[in-house]
Amino acid sequence: MKVSSCLSGGVLILLALCGTSCSTPESAAPAAASNSGQYYIVSAREAKFYRYGPQQASGPDERLAQGTLVTRIRPAFGYSKVQLSDGLQGYVASQDIHAAPPEVVQAATNPNPPVTGTSESNRQPRFRHNIVNPRFLPPPPALPEDQPEPTPIPGSESSPTP
Question: In sequence order, which ranges of 67-151 are alpha helices (DSSP H)?
Answer without folding.
Answer: 102-109
